[in-house]
């Protein structure tokens, strides 16, 4: 028999036990909440063991300790910090424009039938066209400088923000609107206190996809006439056959994405603490 917990009533011992059993079966639990490092640590361990035992040839993948050495050399003898900061600036500026545009379009489209009829169709068409396929067109429009790179990153990150935020807005239960009309809550207050918080999970999910997409765009655009950045470093390393430096760049890109995704996840858990999920 499953215990039932009514709103406003204290949970009984049996109910709490049932709740713990369900969480144990379905969710990771609180003790593993911040254990995001476990997966990367396992990958690093497999990589290290494979390199040490010769299962992974240096011609296939540089050993981790050689990557550390290459990182130190790039840091001390070359402008690795400057390249990292240059890449971060591009992705942060592009992502900021993409997020702002995606949220604005999602709100207009999600809260207005006219807005949806105007904006949703073109954005859905854009979803079927890979942004990276538009890079040659952007080069013709904006040249091969920083403007093209930022526009590409902004556009590639705008779509997931729009789609998931729009779905979150449209997914608000209609019963809340009926309740708001019953108790006399105005439209502005209803949107501010019910609709926008209800769409926040969708926005945060879109942020995770947007961060990954922005980094994908960064990897590509830094191959075009860049004079700084991690991609520029990788291009030079490719010309000289320095595979260890190439792996350094790939590791940096991976860390960018991993840390950004972790930050979004932790932010989501904090701002959505009122929601009970399997991670709780």
UniProtKB/TrEMBL annotation:
SUPFAM superfamilies: MetI-like (SSF161098). InterPro entries: MetI-like (IPR000515), MetI-like_sf (IPR035906). Residues 80-264 form the ABC transmembrane type-1 domain. Its main location: membrane. It is found in: Cell membrane. One of its GO terms (cellular component) is plasma membrane. GO terms for biological process: transmembrane transport. It is a multi-pass membrane protein. It comes from the Bacteria. CDD domains: TM_PBP2 (cd06261). It holds the Pfam family BPD_transp_1. Keywords: Cell membrane, Membrane, Transmembrane, Transmembrane helix, Transport. The chain crosses the membrane at residues 34-56, 91-115, 127-144, 150-169, 190-220, 240-260. Belongs to the binding-protein-dependent transport system permease family. This is ABC transporter permease. The gene is ssuC_4.
